[in-house]
C-alpha cells in the first residue's frame, strides 16, 4: 500500500542521501512510508497522532509507562541516523514528522524502565523488574545465535530467507541491495540480505503436489522430509534444472516487485525429485547472492550458522555449505529472537559484562558441515547461469 509514499520519500530526499543517513532506500515495509500513508489516506486519524511506536515498544509502554525503542528496531523505520544512533532531524524535517512523536532511543542492553506495580499485580510478576531495550527480530535472533563479532554470518530459511552479518563499522551498499542497520549489540552494526520467498517456495511446492495427491484420492500427507528424501536422490545441479524463487517478487539483490518464479531447463527426463532439489538449490543460490554482495564489500565470512528450517535439515545444511563454499554449523539454540533478548536482559542487569561474553557462555555449536569438493565445483558452474537468467528475463517479467 505504501509504494506511492516510498516514491514520495525518494523524490524528496534522494536514494543516495537516504542510504547515507538511514542505510537503506525507501521500501514499503518501513515505518516512515506508513506514517506518510496515514497522512495521505486517513487524515482524520493522522490528526489524532501523539506517539509513533513499533509494536514491541507499545508493549514496553504498557509495562513501564515509558516511551522507548532500541537502535536496531528504530533503524528499520527509515528515520534513524545510523551514525548518530538517534533520530535524523534532516529526515524528520523533510517528511514533516515531529520529533516529539518518537520515543527515546537506547542501545539493546540498556534498561529503559521498570515494571509498573499495576502490571505486576495483573501478571503476578514482582514489581520493579527492569525492562531492557531489546532488539528487532533479526538483530535479536543474531544475538540469540551468537552473531556478535566479525566473521560470523547467519543463514535463516523461514518463509523468507535472511543472510545476516555482524559489522563493527557502518558498511553501506551504495546500490541499496543490502540493508544496513544498527545491531542490538551496543555501537555495532549489521548487514542483511533478504530473499522474499525462501521456505515459502518449498511450501508452495509441497502444497502443489499435496493437491495432486488429493486429486488421486490418496490420504498421504506429504511432509518436508518426504520431499528432501526425494531431492537427496538427485545429483547437485538437478541435471540442468534451475529454479528462480521469485514467487513474491524479490528483495536482494534485485529490488524488483515484478520478478516472478520460474523453472528453467525443464525436460522430459526431470521428475518430482529434480523439481524439489531445484527449488532448494534456487533458494540457496538466492541467499548466495547476498553473501557475494557482502564479500564484495569486504565483509569477512568465516562461518555460516544455519537457523530456521535450513538448519534442521542435513540436506539443506550440506547444500548451503556446497553453494556458499564455507563451513555451515548448527547450534543448540532454537528460540532465536526470544533467546537473544533474554541475553540482552542478562547483560543489562549485570549477569554478564558484555553481549559477547553472554553468547560465549551460553551458545554452542552442535553440528559442522564442510563443503563437498565435487558438489561445490558443480554449483560454482551453475551459479553464474542462475544469475544470468534474471537479467535475461527481467524485461519479460
Topology:
Elements: H1 3-13, H2 15-22, H3 31-41, H4 43-46, H5 55-64, E1 68-70, H6 71-74, E2 80-81, E3 86-87, H7 89-95, E4 104-106, E5 111-114, H8 117-123, E6 130-132, H9 137-144, E7 151-157, E8 161-167, E9 179-182, E10 189-195, H10 199-215, H11 224-231, E11 242-244, E12 262-264, H12 272-296, E13 301-308, H13 309-312, H14 314-324, E14 328-331, H15 337-348, H16 355-362, E15 365-369, H17 373-393
Parallel strand pairs: 1-4, 7-13, 13-14
Antiparallel strand pairs: 2-3, 5-6, 7-8, 8-10, 9-10, 11-12, 14-15
Helix pairs in contact: 1-3, 9-15, 10-12, 11-12, 12-14, 14-17
- Integer average pLDDT: 95
Residue fraction in strands = 15-25%
Helix-residue proportion: 40-55%
Largest sheet: 7 strands, mixed
Distance between the termini: 21 Å
- How many strands in all? 15
Spatial strand sequence of the major β-sheet: 9-10-8-7-13-14-15
What is the number of helices? Answer: 17
Question: What is the approximate shape?
Answer: globular
Rg from C-alpha positions?
22 Å
Structural class: alpha+beta
Unreliable residue runs = none
Summarize the structure.
This protein is of the alpha+beta class. It is built from 17 helices and 15 strands. A hairpin with a 4-residue loop joins β2 and β3.
Please explain how this structure is put together.
The chain is α+β, with helices and mostly antiparallel strands and 397 residues long. 44% of the residues lie in helices and 16% in strands. The chain contains 17 helices and 15 strands. The chain has helices at residues 3-13, 15-22, 31-41, 43-46, 55-64, 71-74, 89-95, 117-123, 137-144, 199-215, 224-231, 272-296, 309-312, 314-324, 337-348, 355-362, 373-393; strands at 68-70, 80-81, 86-87, 104-106, 111-114, 130-132, 151-157, 161-167, 179-182, 189-195, 242-244, 262-264, 301-308, 328-331, 365-369. Strands 9-10-8-7-13-14-15 form a 7-stranded mixed sheet, with helices on both faces. Strands 1-4 form a two-stranded parallel ribbon. A two-stranded antiparallel sheet has the order 2-3. A hairpin with a 4-residue loop joins strand 2 (80-81) and strand 3. It is globular. The protein starts with a helix and ends with a helix. The mean pLDDT is 95.
Amino acid at each position: 500500500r505504501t509504494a506511492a509514499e516510498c516514491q514520495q520519500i525518494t523524490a524528496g530526499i534522494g536514494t543516495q542521501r537516504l542510504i547515507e543517513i538511514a542505510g537503506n532506500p525507501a521500501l514499503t515495509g518501513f515505518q516512515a512510508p506508513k506514517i506518510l500513508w496515514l497522512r495521505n489516506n486517513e487524515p482524520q486519524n493522522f490528526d489524532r497522532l501523539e506517539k509513533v511506536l513499533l509494536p514491541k515498544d507499545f508493549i514496553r509502554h504498557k509495562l513501564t509507562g515509558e516511551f522507548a525503542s532500541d537502535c536496531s528496531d528504530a533503524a528499520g523505520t527509515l528515520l534513524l541516523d545510523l551514525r548518530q544512533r538517534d533520530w535524523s532531524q534532516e529526515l524528520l524535517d523533510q517528511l514533516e514528522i515531529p520529533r516529539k512523536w518518537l520515543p527515546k532511543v537506547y542501545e539493546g542492553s540498556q534498561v529503559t524502565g521498570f515494571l509498573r506495580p499495576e502490571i505486576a499485580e495483573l501478571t503476578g510478576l514482582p514489581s520493579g523488574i527492569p525492562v531492557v531495550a531489546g532488539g528487532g527480530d533479526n538483530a535479536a535472533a543474531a544475538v540469540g545465535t551468537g552473531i556478535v563479532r566479525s566473521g560470523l554470518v547467519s543463514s535463516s530459511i523461514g518463509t523468507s530467507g535472511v543472510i545476516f552479518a555482524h559489522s563493527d563499522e557502518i558498511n553501506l551498499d551504495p546500490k541499496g541491495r543490502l540493508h544496513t542497520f544498527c545491531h542490538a549489540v551496543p555501537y555495532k552494526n549489521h548487514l542483511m540480505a533478504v530473499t522474499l520467498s525462501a521456505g515459502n517456495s518449498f511450501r508452495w511446492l509441497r502444497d502443489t503436489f499435496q493437491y495432486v495427491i488429493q486429486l488421486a484420492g490418496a490420504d498421504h500427507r506429504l511432509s518436508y522430509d518426504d520431499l528432501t528424501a526425494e531431492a537427496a536422490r538427485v545429483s547437485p545441479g538437478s541435471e540442468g534444472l534451475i529454479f528462480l524463487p521469485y514467487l513474491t517478487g524479490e528483495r536482494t539483490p534485485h529490488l524488483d516487485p515484478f520478478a516472478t518464479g520460474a523453472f528453467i531447463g525443464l525436460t522430459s527426463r526431470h521428475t518430482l525429485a529434480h523439481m524439489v532439489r531445484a527449488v532448494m538449490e534456487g533458494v540457496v543460490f538466492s541467499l548466495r547472492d547476498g553473501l557475494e554482495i557482502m564479500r564484495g564489500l569486504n565483509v569477512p565470512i568465516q562461518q555460516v550458522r544455519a537457523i530456521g528450517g535450513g538448519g534442521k535439515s542435513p540436506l539443506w545444511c550440506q547444500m548451503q555449505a556446497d553453494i556458499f563454499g564455507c563451513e555451515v554449523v548448527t547450534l543448540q539454540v532454537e528460540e532465536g529472537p526470544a533467546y537473544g533478548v533474554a541475553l540482552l536482559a542478562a547483560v543489562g542487569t549485570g549477569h554478564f559484562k558484555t553481549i559477547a561474553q553472554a553468547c560465549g557462555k551460553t551458545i554452542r555449536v552442535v553440528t559442522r558441515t564442510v563443503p563437498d569438493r565435487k558438489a561445490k565445483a558443480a554449483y560454482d558452474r551453475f551459479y553464474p547461469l542462475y544469475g544470468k537468467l534474471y537479467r535475461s528475463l527481467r524485461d519479460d517479467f
